[in-house]
Amino acid sequence: MTNHFKRIIRYIKPYRLYIVKAFLCNMMYAFFSLFTLGMIVPFISILFGLIDPVTVRPALSLSTDAIVHTLSYYITWFNMQYGIFEALMFVSGVFIICSLLSNVFHFLGMYYLTPVNANATRDIRNDLFYKILILPLSFYTKHKAGDMLTRFNADLHEVDTALIRCTIDVLLRQPLVIIVFVGTLWIISPLLTVLSLLIFPFVNFTTRKISKAIRRKALQVQTELGTVASMYEETISGLRIIKGFSAQHYFLSKFKHTNGRFAKYSIKILRYLELSAPVSELLTLISLLCIILTGGILMMKNESMQANSLILFVLVFARLIPPIQTSIRGYGYIQKGLISAARIFEILDSDEKIIEAPNAIPVKTFEHSIVLNDVSFAYDNEIVLHNIHLEIKKGETIALVGHSGGGKSTIINLLLRFYDIDHGEIQIDNRNIKDYIISDVRTLFGVVTQDVILFNDTVYNNICLSNIHADKSNVIQAAKNAGAHDFIMEMPHQYDTIIGDRGAKLSGGQRQRLSIARAIVQNPAILLLDEATSALDSHSEQIVQHALEFLMQNRTSIIIAHRLSTIQNANRIIVLKDGRIIEEGSHRELLAKQGEYYKLVSLQEL
Questions:
Q1: CA 565, CA 502: separation in Å to the nearest integer?
Q2: Alpha-carbon gap, residue 497 to 233, rounded angstroms
Q3: According to the model, what pLDDT value does residue 248 have?
Q4: Could you give the C-alpha distances from 507 to 452, 476, 547, in angstroms and in order?
Q5: What span, in angstroms and rounded, lies between the C-alpha atoms of 117 and 418?
Q6: 87 φ, ψ to 5°?
């Protein structure tokens, strides 16, 4: 936890100029708060005749008597010149001015601290989003989307409100006030100050016990919150299935059970957070009572304690209680925030398994061939590709076929470097794919998949996603070539129409045509088609197939297909089974062999 705290501090460091300004303002706030309290004692003392009026201005020093006598001198002079009522008005005016200045500097202290909090949180959010973008796909197969969203939202909010703000407050503002006030108490009476500080070991012991309980419960709360968020995400994405199978009652019951655990843990942690303040207040009030009794005994024995000094000591000590309580409560929130920080840093510290070589070279064109040389690959411990040997020459159209789980999509993922191979080598133009800049490798490929991914943005922005600097005329021409222009022009705002989450406002064929237009704008050297037409009706398939044929012109194409009628014109068909290439050849050659491919074609013709 200490390391997490230090890392949070590093996010705060770049804004130390704001912290210096806030520190100076908080010093002035503490000074004027103390001066405001100091005005009360001499006025009460003179008004009620507790001490004799001071008619000779004393020499200034840091002693309590000198400060009190100096204030008493000016109040006495004002009282003798104008009367007691006017003196009351004078002291009230000075009191209001000091109080106003105290609050102004308190506001300025928070004014300068606000950018520190907001910017530090912004920097953590930027780092977290960047990490989410670069982590390998394998990371997301092990973590639920809902839990990731919880870390990005709820945990980050917890770090913002319960950790960064409390850290700044507990380490910067409250200690300054406490130091100034404790120093003042020491000047007034060292004996009473020592007596008042004896209570703090008990406060510290109580705080540590409560903090341990908070840390333990905070981890349970955030874990359950991640489960709740995952259930939200899964329910919304699968609502059609849930309703179709009338499974609402099952999902509601499951959610209520999880949400109940979250509520139970939340209640416990909130109770622990609220427990620290009354416990510390009780202990502090006991200390205050001891101070008053001890001070009274000293006064009755005619020792060094005077009435005005005891009054000032009690006022300052009472004013010391709120920052102590704030610090204790803030410490509890910091412990709670550290749990959320640990969950965030777990993502930030995750290994980026797809690592770019330090001296990676650019690749902008595809000139000769792609070679998979003795390639093997496993997801965790499950081997999905065994010693694959495959060469794809420039301009060829290659089809990958076979039963589900044969390794077809895995080959596509390896070419895009979504994963790195376990054994063997993938070469592009006689050079290892790992030698190239990763983004350049992926730019060589244009991908059109069965599961089209569109974003809740305009049609135009979805099409030019692969080339954000594309000219509008090129985007429109790409849409025409993809057979999408006509239905786009029928939309309310045409190319500026928002298409909804994942393109929800479009049909399957329309979404697919937009994805093809996006690939055309990218103008890739190599085209990857992963079941691009399998989910479409006959009419949509015909339109999309025509668009794909345009897209495939003069390009190297790698096609994954279960509908074998769409790949009969491929230069070569690669048949995969259980992660191995078992057949290879043209459509006619493979039919003539009457092997695995012949069986697949025969099954589809039944």
A1: 29
A2: 26
A3: 74
A4: 11, 20, 16
A5: 36
A6: -65, -40
DSSP for 555-600, written as a single string: SEEEEE-SSGGGGTT-SEEEEEETTEEEEEE-HHHHHHHTSHHHHH
Could you tell me the two tokens for 61? 């020093």
173 and 320 together in one domain = yes
- Compute the distance between CA of residue 419 and CA of residue 383 in angstroms, rounded to an integer: 14
CATH number at residue 240: 1.20.1560.10
Locus of tokens 């977290």: 128
144 pLDDT more than 80: no
CATH code assigned at 445:
3.40.50.300
How far apart, in Å, are the Cα atoms of 388 and each of 104, 368, 372, 402?
73, 19, 7, 15
Residues composing the chain: 606
Which two three-digit tokens encode residue 581?
Answer: 């290439």
Which residue type sits at 42?
Answer: P
Do 311 and 395 have their domain in common?
Answer: no
Predicted local distance difference test score (pLDDT) of residue 68: 61
Whether pTM exceeds 0.70: no
At 227-265, the pLDDT tens digits run 777 777 677 666 666 766 677 777 778 778 888 887 887
pLDDT of residue 532: 64
Which of 211, 157, 204, 166 lies closest to 9, judged by CA?
A: 166
pLDDT at res. 604: 67
256 and 198 in a common domain: yes
CA distance 504 to 550: 26
Parent domain of 194: 8-13+113-348
